[in-house]
From TrEMBL:
Keywords: Signal. Residues 1-25 form the signal peptide. This is Ig-like domain-containing protein. It comes from the Eukaryota.
């Protein structure tokens, strides 16, 4: 059996890519492990959180293009497809995903969709009106379960 095993510590999950043979010919021990770990969660992990990798405050220069990164930190026994990361402004308004139709200075998100428990908050470019608090919300099956906040100021 040819396989590649890669560990992604940023998402705290182990990815196994089997090139050949099909799953029916996998060893029994591997089949049992897969069955055990593939249970469906109905409640979020108490250890799951959205972590803003830039800290709690960042300063961005006028007219610079910059981003803030948030990722889900979820125990390895939970499926990532239950989690999403979303960004909201200080007023609670959801930050919209990137759109090529928006003109002028804007704040938007990249990532954060289903099966992608991480997201970038992008300032393109940064202007003084963008200075504010922004929150990264970790969502489990549509329900917010954790929030991290960062203050973004102009340098």
């Amino acid at each position: 059996m040819k396989s590649r095993i890669a560990s992604t510590t940023a998402l705290m999950v182990t990815l196994v890519v089997c090139l050949t043979p099909p799953a029916a010919s996998l060893p029994t021990r591997l089949k049992m492990t897969t069955t055990t770990t593939m249970r469906e969660e109905t409640t979020p992990s108490t250890k799951a959180e959205g972590v803003i990798m830039n800290g709690t405050m960042v300063r961005i220069g006028f007219s610079e293009e910059a981003w803030v990164y948030c990722r889900a930190q979820v125990p390895t026994d939970h499926h990532l497809h239950h989690y999403q990361v979303k960004w909201v402004t200080a007023t609670g308004k959801m930050v919209s995903p990137w759109s090529r139709h928006n003109a002028g200075p804007q704040v938007y998100t990249l990532g954060g969709g289903p099966h992608i428990p991480h997201s970038y908050l992008v300032f393109d470019p940064f202007v003084p009106s963008h200075a504010s608090h922004y929150s990264c919300i970790l969502v489990f099956n549509g329900t917010p379960v954790h929030q991290s906040t960062i203050r973004v100021d102009q340098s």
